[in-house]
Specification:
88 residues, 3 helices
Length: 88
């Protein structure tokens, strides 16, 4: 199987350089308002539920944990409680 360098030698240069998303800063579409999430109305994930429960207990506000929240609302509550608990 020929590698990309053999293609370049044959006059077939790449049109764009290959990028590595792990080395580049986060792009703006990775930081969206939860209300704009396509999947925001789906049930919260197990990870969200666990983290929200932990944060609500640390903030001494266990009533802020609701197992029936959707992903978007869970994210908003997590952000709210992270501010109260000092977690970033």
């Amino acid at each position: 199987m020929p590698d990309s360098s053999s293609n370049a030698r044959k006059g077939k240069a790449r049109s764009q350089p290959v990028s590595n998303p792990k080395l580049e800063p986060a792009i703006s579409n990775q930081i969206k308002d939860p209300d704009e999430w396509v999947s925001g109305s789906e049930p919260m994930t197990g990870a969200q539920a666990s983290y929200l429960k932990t944060l609500s207990e640390e903030a001494h506000q266990p009533d802020l944990y609701d197992p029936n929240l959707d992903k978007a609302e869970a994210s908003k509550r997590i952000d709210q409680l992270r501010g109260k608990t000092g977690r970033d």
